[in-house]
Design brief:
- By secondary structure, the protein is mainly α.
- The chain is built from 25 helices and 7 strands.
- A 5-stranded antiparallel sheet has the order 2-3-1-4-5. Strands 6-7 form a two-stranded antiparallel ribbon.
- α3 runs antiparallel to α4.
- The longest helix is centred in the C-terminal third of the chain and has 32 residues.
- It is globular and about 75 Å long.
């Protein structure tokens, strides 16, 4: 949650005046902010993109690139996401029901992990139904419908729909090649002012958002010694004569030589314009470097001529791009715990020690040279770290062990996150004479919140206070309350989160394989890398804590502990109406 955008600030400094207008802005800021943890950042998939992935894995299966188990796993994930869809259901209700029915039926597989003969017809039906939807409904149409539904939800004060649809707007914008940083900037530019009404800002913002291909002619300064090797080049004087009426042509230097690159990019999305132009320029200079070995460095500044607005834009990459690190203040003594953990492994098992210290090193800033490299480096670390005698394959171990580790205290950390968000919003609250909303909450503070959420009267009082301070916090309060209401709710949350992690790890494995075997880089590699970084960090943190508290001295024992703990925990919550002791939330069952 971005702390400085509380209700009062927005009322005083922006065009936002209603609760749902503020909720929209707060949620979009949280989803897009580079500091947001993965629990609160944008999701990789909406209904359209999961159907696109399902179609692609079916085509890959037909081309003998993947096995049938992968198709079935993506189908199961698609079934989950489609069941709560709002956008396709609104635009094409009859076709939505056909798609929902098609993906609901399981695809049976053989012992060799192929699609069973009796399920081939069903797989073809899914494929043709998705193609029928894509023929009618293009990515930009999906985004447009998402925007219409979000505006309706804001106007009708349907806050829960606003929260869900904000996620859809972001993932739908990425489908048409917009960037997270570009989206973040546009939200600030349009809504952080009082000059125009919210409705007028919305009209302008959504209109620009829907322009998926705007023409830009980009000019990049080049060294004079390369001018004969480049076909599309002009001098600064030639450009000023060519663009006599252009705004900001003073950016160009008369004597400089510029390489010309034409791109179609989402309107006003500067990072997207830069990425497209720079990629073309880099590839052209790479040929020169390959042939001559004389290109020492590449120019980073791009001057883009906006054909529609008749003016130049100077675009430069951020020199000190913030790198997301999953450190949080509430991880007590994490440094000491990890040191003890790796020293213990070093004494007992050099091989286990090498695996863990390798994964820890690969999380560090100084071992990273870009998201693609970082993703592959971390994935290789996970394959080494979690390869286990308990599973036949590395991916089987990763998909089983990591989710059981991360879900063990998932509810605990959700409670912590809420307290920290409430503290950022300036909320103070006392329950049973205890002030529990603090920057660094103790286990006792977290338990106090847990008990409060079981009391409807106290919950209502806290939720109302959250709504007064920070509208988005009210919806977080509602979410966390429903998570912990009884054993059934807690079991469902843990089970669903574990399943989501399994799907996502399998997706990362496919991304890794495409990168390694087909040189294809996934368009969401930055988000996937951020997720993988968090998974690695959280797993090592939890393993370190468990190793110390239970005196476990080998990785195989630790993996067995987490798997056993998860199974027993779920069984212990069989009676859905029962309450769950806080110690189970804090420490797991065992």
């Amino acid at each position: 949650m971005v702390s400085n955008y509380d209700n009062q600030y927005l009322l005083n400094n922006t065009c936002l005046s209603t609760e749902c207008q503020m909720l929209f802005f707060q949620k979009m800021k949280e989803l897009l902010h580079i500091h947001s943890g993965i629990s609160y950042s944008f999701k990789i998939h909406n209904s359209y993109t999961i159907l696109e992935e399902l179609l692609n894995v079916i085509i890959d299966y037909e081309s003998n690139k993947i096995n049938g188990m992968t198709v079935e796993e993506v189908r199961k994930e698609a079934k989950q996401i489609i069941s709560s869809d709002i956008v396709i259901r609104f635009k094409y209700p009859e076709l939505y029901e056909v798609i929902k029915e098609a993906v609901a039926v399981a695809l049976k597989t053989t012992n060799t992990q192929a699609i069973d003969t009796n399920s081939i017809a069903q797989m073809h039906s899914i494929k043709e139904t998705i193609k029928q939807l894509f023929h009618k409904f293009k990515p930009v149409d999906y985004l447009q419908t998402s925007l219409i539904l979000t505006k309706n939800a804001i106007d009708n004060s349907e806050g829960r729909d606003v929260v869900v649809l904000c996620q859809v707007i972001v993932s739908a914008s990425l489908m048409i090649n917009r960037t997270i940083s570009g989206l973040y900037a546009s939200i600030s530019n349009f809504f952080e002012n009082k000059e125009l009404s919210f409705d007028e800002n919305w009209r302008r913002w959504s209109a620009i958002l829907l322009i998926a291909e705007s023409k830009y002619i980009c000019y990049i300064p080049i060294d004079e010694k390369f001018k004969d090797s480049l076909e599309n080049k002009k001098t600064g004087i030639e450009l000023k004569e060519l663009y006599v009426e252009a705004d900001r042509k003073e950016y160009l230097e008369d004597g400089a030589i510029y390489n010309e690159v034409e791109v179609d990019a989402p309107a006003s999305d500067l990072p997207s314009i830069y990425n497209k132009a720079y990629t073309s320029y880099r590839n052209e200079l790479a040929i020169i470097e390959f042939a001559t070995a004389k290109v020492e460095k590449l120019e980073k500044t791009i001057y883009a001529y906006d054909v529609y607005n008749k003016g130049f834009i100077k675009i430069e990459p951020k020199e000190n791009e913030f790198v997301y690190k999953p450190y949080n203040q509430y991880h007590v003594n994490i440094e000491q715990a990890i040191k003890k953990f790796i020293l213990l492994l070093k004494e007992q098992n050099q091989r286990d020690y090498a695996k863990v210290i390798g994964a820890i090193t690969n999380v560090c800033n100084f071992e990273r040279e870009g998201n693609e490299y970082g993703f592959l480096l971390l994935w290789s670390s996970l394959e080494a770290l979690f390869r286990s005698n308990q599973f036949d394959t590395a991916i089987g171990a990763i998909k089983n062990i990591i989710p059981t580790i991360i879900t063990r205290r998932y509810i605990y950390y959700k409670l912590v996150d809420f307290i920290k968000d409430a503290q950022k919003a300036g909320v103070t609250y006392s329950y049973e004479s205890k002030e529990f909303i603090k920057k660094n909450p103790s286990d006792q503070d977290i338990e106090t919140l847990y008990r409060l959420l079981q009391c409807q009267e106290q919950y209502d009082s806290l939720a109302d206070l959250c709504k007064q301070k920070y509208v988005l916090l009210y919806y977080k309060c509602y979410e966390i309350k429903n998570m912990v209401i009884n054993a059934g709710a807690i079991s469902n949350v843990i089970t669903h989160h574990k399943e989501t992690l399994e799907y996502h790890l399998q997706r990362m494995y496919r991304v890794r394989n495409k990168f390694m075997h087909h040189a294809e880089i996934d368009k969401n590699i930055s988000a996937l890398y951020k997720h993988l970084l968090v998974y690695t960090w959280e797993c090592i943190r939890e393993m370190a804590y468990v190793s110390e508290t239970r005196n476990i001295r080998s990785l195989e024992e630790i993996y067995a502990y987490f798997r056993m703990n998860h199974g027993i925990s779920i069984k212990s919550m069989k009676d859905a109406r029962n309450s769950v002791d806080f110690d189970r939330i804090k420490n797991g069952y065992l």
